[in-house]
Amino acid sequence: MQNYITAFIEYLQYEKGLSVNTRAAYRRDLNKFNTYLLKNSESSHPGEISKQQIMAFLSTQMDEGAANSTVARSLSSIKTFYKFMVLENHVQNNPTSDLETPKIKRKLPEILTIEEVDKLLQEPKVMLPLGLRDRAMLELMYGTGVRVSELLSLQIEDVNTTAGFMRCFGKGRKERIIPVNQTSIDWIQRYLARARNLLVKNYLERTLFVNANGRPMSRQGFYKILGVYAKKAELGKEVTPHTLRHSFATHLLENGADLRAVQEMLGHADISTTQIYTHLTRSRLMEVYQRYHPRA
C-alpha cells in the first residue's frame, strides 16, 4: 500500500499540481487508512480491499470521536486514491464507486466587522521595518482576499502598483489576476521603499514579503504575527488568515458586489463554495432587523 500511496502523492504533485499542504493532507488520511488495514485486515493491498473494510474504517473513526468533516475528508481521500489506482490500471475494481461522501453542514466562518478590521490594521508600528511590512501584508490580505499561501508566495513582479492589480497562483497552480485597491498599493510602495531592503540579505531574493532574516516567510510565522496583532487589538475573536479572507468576501457582498465577481477574486472553482458568504450577509441582515426594527 505504501508504495501506491507514494505514487499517488507524486501524481497529485506532477499531474494535478496540488500544493504541499493539500498533498500532505491526502498522505495523512491514506496513512491512517493503511495503519487501520495493517491492524485489522489480512491484506492491505489496494486490490484486495472491500467496500465493507472501507466502511468499517470510517465507522472506527466515528467511534473514536472524529468529527463528521474528518470522516468525510477521509472518504474523499480514499475515493480520489482509488480513481488514481483505476486510471493507472493498478486495480480493476473501485470499491468506493457507490460510496457517497456525506454532505457536511458547513459552519459559517467568523468574520470581522469593518471597525474591527480597522482596529487590527492600526496595530503594526509602521515606523519600524517589520511593522511596515506587517501593515502592508495585512492591508493586501484584507484588500484582495488571497489565501495565506498565495500571499506569502508573491514575488515583487507579481504586484503591478501602477496598473493596480496582482497575479497569484491558487490551488492547482491556477493563475488569476486580482484588482488591488489604492490603499494596499500605497502601503506596499512604502514597504518596498523603506523596509524591504533593510530586511533582505540576498539581493537575488524576489519574494515580496520576507521575515526578519530576509528569507521567505512561513505560514506559521504569519499566523504568529496575526495572532499578536489580534490580541493587541482586543477583538475578542480568534483571528486567522482565513478570517480576513472571509471578511473581505462578506464586506464586498454586503455592499452589493456580484457573487460571480467575488468567486473570481477568491479563486473558487465552484460558485457553491462562494455562496456560503450569502448566508453570512443574510445573517447580518437579520441581526440588523432584529436590533433596529421596532416590532422585531
Describe this entry's structure for a reader.
The chain has 296 residues and is mostly helical. The chain folds into two domains: 2-87, Orthogonal Bundle (DNA polymerase, domain 1), CATH 1.10.150.130; 114-292, Orthogonal Bundle (hpI Integrase, Chain A). The chain has 14 helices and three strands. The protein has helices at 2-14, 20-40, 51-63, 68-87, 114-121, 129-144, 148-152, 182-194, 196-199, 219-232, 241-254, 259-266, 271-274, 276-292, and strands at 159-160, 165-169, 175-179. Strands 1-2-3 form a three-stranded antiparallel sheet, with no helix packed on it. Strand 1 (159-160) and strand 2 form a beta hairpin. Helix 3 runs antiparallel to helix 4 and helix 6 (129-144) crosses helix 11 (241-254). The radius of gyration is 23 Å and the shape is globular. The termini are far apart. The model has no long low-confidence stretch (mean pLDDT 85).
What would you report as the Rg, rounded to the nearest angstrom?
23 Å
User: Given the helix and strand composition, which structural class is it?
Assistant: mainly alpha
Task: Tell me the domain tally.
Answer: 2
Low-confidence stretches: none
CATH architecture of the largest domain: Orthogonal Bundle
- N-to-C SSE string, H for helix and E for strand: HHHHHHHEEEHHHHHHH
DSSP helical segment count: 14
Shape call: globular
What is the CATH homology-level superfamily of the largest domain? Intergrase catalytic core
Helix content: 55-70%
How many beta strands in the DSSP annotation?
3
CATH-derived topology of the largest domain: hpI Integrase, Chain A
**What is the top-level CATH class of the largest domain?**
Mainly Alpha
Strand order of the largest sheet: 1-2-3
**What is the first-to-last residue Cα distance?**
60 Å
Give the averaged pLDDT, no decimals. Answer: 85
% residues in beta strands: under 5%
Note the main sheet: 3 strands, antiparallel
